[in-house]
């Protein structure tokens, strides 16, 4: 199990998230990524190299935002290649990072596949993004959509979500895996370490 860092603040949190990933490197990982939401849009940068490489890509792209999630991955489902690196997205409206294993992912993937969902990765994590998207399309608000999706999952996990059009929203969830919440002055954090 690797690491999650999340933050929602009133300043650019990308440098803090990169520093958070650096501090999680000791746990081992095979890929890493950062996603942000700003001006209503999700952005993400992923790397199958080290956090230093991710940091270089982030600064080249001038990624800056007040809300974001970052991840180091230790692959359990799907090879350590870019398409499997977190964040997983669904319809450019949800970004999710995940530590742990979704035990019933095969059955959920088949069910979503029958509804026409196309998958861009081999991970167990991607089903979570699509499940939440499916709940949103039924008219639920993001927190209610996550809540309904969580009820369908088996396994141990820590998850963090961003939503397009929701620049101030960071949702975290855990079952059996660690995920701590940090309350700051006008700033909120998530961390799995
Ligand atoms: N099971 C997920 C994957 O293979 C998450 C692995 C992790 O905890 O980093 O992508």
Features:
four-stranded antiparallel beta sheet, alpha+beta, six-stranded antiparallel beta sheet, single chain, 193 residues, binds glutamic acid
Task: Draw up the topology in text.
Elements: E1 3-8, H1 14-24, E2 31-38, E3 41-47, H2 51-60, E4 67-73, E5 88-90, E6 94-102, H3 105-114, H4 125-137, H5 142-150, E7 155-163, E8 171-175, E9 180-183, E10 188-191
Antiparallel strand pairs: 1-4, 1-10, 2-3, 2-4, 5-6, 6-7, 7-8, 9-10
Helix pairs in contact: 1-2, 3-4, 4-5
> What's the arrangement of strands in the largest beta sheet?
3-2-4-1-10-9
Our estimate of the beta-strand percent is: 25-35%
Ligand identities: glutamic acid
Unreliable stretches (pLDDT < 50, length at least 5) are none
Structural class: alpha+beta
Could you characterize the architecture of this molecule?
The protein contains 5 helices and 10 strands. The site of glutamic acid has 15 residues, from strand 6. Glutamic acid (GLU) binds next to strand 6.
How do you describe this structure in short?
With 193 residues, the protein is α+β, with helices and mostly antiparallel strands. The protein is 27% helix and 32% strand.
């Amino acid at each position: 199990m690797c690491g999650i860092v999340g933050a929602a603040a009133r300043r650019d949190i990308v440098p803090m998230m990169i520093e958070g990933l650096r501090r999680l490197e000791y746990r081992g990982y095979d890929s890493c990524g950062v996603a942000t939401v700003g001006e209503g849009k999700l952005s993400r940068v992923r790397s199958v190299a080290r956090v230093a490489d991710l940091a270089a890509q982030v600064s080249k792209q001038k990624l800056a935002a007040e809300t974001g999630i970052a991840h180091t991955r230790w692959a359990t489902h799907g090879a350590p290649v870019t398409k499997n690196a977190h964040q997983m997205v669904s319809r450019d409206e949800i970004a999710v990072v995940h530590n742990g294993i979704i035990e019933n992912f095969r059955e959920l993937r088949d069910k979503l596949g029958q509804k026409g969902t196309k998958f861009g990765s081999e991970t167990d994590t991607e089903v979570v993004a699509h499940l939440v998207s499916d709940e949103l399309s039924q008219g639920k608000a993001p927190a209610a959509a996550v809540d309904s999706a969580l009820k369908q999952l088996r396994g141990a996990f820590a998850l963090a979500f961003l939503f397009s059009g929701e620049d101030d929203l960071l949702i975290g969830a855990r079952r059996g895996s660690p995920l701590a919440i940090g309350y700051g002055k006008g700033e909120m954090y998530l961390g799995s370490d």
